[in-house]
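To illustrate the input format used throughout this study, we show a single complete record. The first block contains the structure-token representation of the backbone; no residue identities are included at this stage. The design step must infer an amino acid for every position from geometry alone.
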């Protein structure tokens, strides 16, 4: 029987964020998008973590920002919640 490491139970999801340098040529814009996205994820991830822990599953997720303009935090927060709900329903 394989032994699970404590990090697997504590962090069942690996997540990455990206913004295109073609659409956002300035690094400050890309960094802002990624920073806002990470914060929206951080505030809402616990429900997915609980679901995955109950199912004894792990996920690796990579989110790519594809819009042509920088969205405000409330929009990103809502979109991340939609993504989290889809991830929960697919597991």
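Output of the design step:
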């Amino acid at each position: 029987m394989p032994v699970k490491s404590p990090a697997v139970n504590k962090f069942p999801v690996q997540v990455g964020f990206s913004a295109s340098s073609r659409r956002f040529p300035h690094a400050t814009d890309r960094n802002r998008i990624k920073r806002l996205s990470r914060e929206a994820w951080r505030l809402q991830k616990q429900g997915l973590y609980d679901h995955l822990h109950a199912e004894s599953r792990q996920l690796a997720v990579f989110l790519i920002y594809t819009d042509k303009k920088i969205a405000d935090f409330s929009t990103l927060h809502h979109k991340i919640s939609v993504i989290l709900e889809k991830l929960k329903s697919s597991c």
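Structural context for interpreting the output: DSSP finds four helices and two strands in the chain. The chain has one domain: 13-90.
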